[in-house]
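This part of the workshop introduces the protein records we will be handling. Getting from the letters to the tokens is the skill we practise here. The record below serves as our worked example for the rest of this section.

…
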Amino acid sequence: MTNSNPLLEVSQLKNYAVPFNKIKNEHYLTAIKSAIDIARKNIEAITKNKEEPTFENSLLALEKSSEMLDSNSRVFFNMLSAHTDDEKQALVKEISPIISHFSSEVQMNPKLFERIKALYDKKDSLGLNQEQMQLLDNTYKSFVRNGALLDEKQKEEIKSIDQRMAVLSPEFSENVLNDTNSFQMWIDNEEDLAGLPESVVEAAKHAGEEADANKKGQALFTLHAPSFIPFVTFSEKRELREKMYRAYGSRALKGDKNNREICIEMANLRHKRAQILGFKSHAHFKLEERMAQKPETVMAFLNRLLEKSRPAAERDIEELKELKKSMGHGDDFMPWDYHFYAEKLKAKKFDIDQEKLRPYFKLENVINGAFEHAKKLFKIDFRKTDEYPTYHEDVSVYEVYKEGSEEYIGLFFTDFFPRKSKRGGAWMTSYLEQGIFQNKNVRPIISIVCNFTKPTPKKPSLLTFEEVTTLFHEFGHSLHGLLSQCNYRSLSGTNVYWDFVELPSQLMENWCLERETLELFAKHYETGETIPSEWIDKLKALSHFQAGYRSLRQVNFAMLDMAWHSQDPSSIKDVTEFEAEATRKTQVLPKIEGTNQSVSFAHIFAGGYSAGYYSYKWAEVLDADAFEYFKEQGLYNEKVAQSLYDNILTRGGTEHPMELYKKFRGREPDADALLRRDGLI
């Protein structure tokens, strides 16, 4: 059995790499069930230990108890997002409840909790260091927040809720992905391609040929970002922009497999769970473990942004309306007009558009530029290798080392192009977190997964500037995972408060507007010419373009999230009506009947950001303030970079994030740094 299932053995490959070439779908369920059996035996050994509870025989033993399960489930769920198929979509409905049941079983094990509580009650006399104390605090709170102090009836309710949620969350994702994949807009009339850049048309015809060889010469447009965004940005055919917008905005809203009832059921289950645990709402429960601490703080923060963003957003939209009118295109302004006229106004104001910029952002140059950027800041090398198996031909692998040495830091995977087996968006993930694994302090295996413009037979992958910043964003998360120097995997890397986790990623985006960084990689893919200085100046000026609307859009998402999760949702009967009321203050464009954000809002219903979407803007305050420090001292100032490395990137969640930030910056963040950067004050 062991030999026939590669997931049932600790990887024999170098650096614990995943044997993707040997893993088949039939291996996952067997491996996860076996890993749970192993973990159960480990837990049982802890609870049957007759010795007095110690850090080593209870807390550390618990930390190490489910290593195989962690490893196998990471591989499965990463594949579910990055390279799924019908079998995996069916498997998740069986695997998620099994894992959820086991997790509840552990968290509600009275004998196990008794040993952890015994340590917690005398924690100040145990002589623990900061990281050990944090592990103890986190573990004790995790038990309590998962029902350890509840009576048996309440514990069963929590278990039941968790198991139901384990089914609903992947079902939500599956419905969004299926609706995204099912939409195809074929164009065989050249007139209907009016306004679209040559590169976009070429990519669409290439996609069409790949999808259906009988439709050679026809252009295929889909709801995946590299197709959808260029179309609604450049197409002169307003009725087709509307068709794309309505299709995108109605994903998982209609048909047999929609997310209307799933949203309502998940919100009610989360609320019920929070109340059983003694919290007023799901938001109160979640925010106890966040920098913001309570919903009132979040709403005060969002209302401050709303106060500054809405008037600016209204001016932004008015400017676009005036442009549309001046072009003889009428007075009415709809959501499917936004990107089109914003691009026109951008070209008029700055004489620059993303299609002019693309040739300077060849994907290979950008990723190598990100590597060079990391070397300048943190003295590390990325070395490409073909030594490791991958799960798809698009995936590349790099070994990371201390600059000019053989001191190994970690493995780094990149997966850049869209496909039907991959969900939309961009994310960083891990296959092995840094810390103790198999009794060794191991280095991590980190991956970034994106959906960038694919190369065609005639052109390499040429990124938009937005895709460049996305790459740097996910690369920032990757550095947080790669550079970690912790002992315990549950505290390492990105295992930090969710309103702190976006600091390293969003901070990295700032360098994309700096000449010194752009000159590392922004070179024309045909001529090798570096991006002109005046274009860099325009890019900087562009960072304030439509800043009010962009800020308001994020506030809109955050307020919608808080509306779902900071109150009793039992009165919500219709998702569309609820959403319309929840976002009334943040709407500056007409609400379109038949569209809905919530039913495809995977961040909060399938991605762990429930009652946490505000953290993007919260972290923007941190990153704006942090980057001011670099601007003051020098973009690649060794002292500031070392402070970022020592106090944030290597420390994971071993200390409260505000304490880590103060150690890095020398003070608390300036709350107005973000508004200053966006030109809103």
Observations:
- Residues 359-533 form a domain with the Neurolysin; domain 3 fold (CATH 1.10.1370.40).
